[in-house]
Design a protein that fits this description.
rod-shaped, mainly alpha, 30 residues, 1 helix
Length: 30
């Protein structure tokens, strides 16, 4: 894997992770 791909993968996984946390928090708040 090149550094560029690893960086992109990290950005995507961080994005999915934060989106999942927001959805999880919304379920708890309701």
């Amino acid at each position: 894997m090149t550094n560029g791909l690893m960086f992109m993968g990290k950005l995507v996984s961080d994005c999915l992770l934060s989106a999942g946390k927001r959805a999880y928090n919304r379920r708890i708040c309701k």
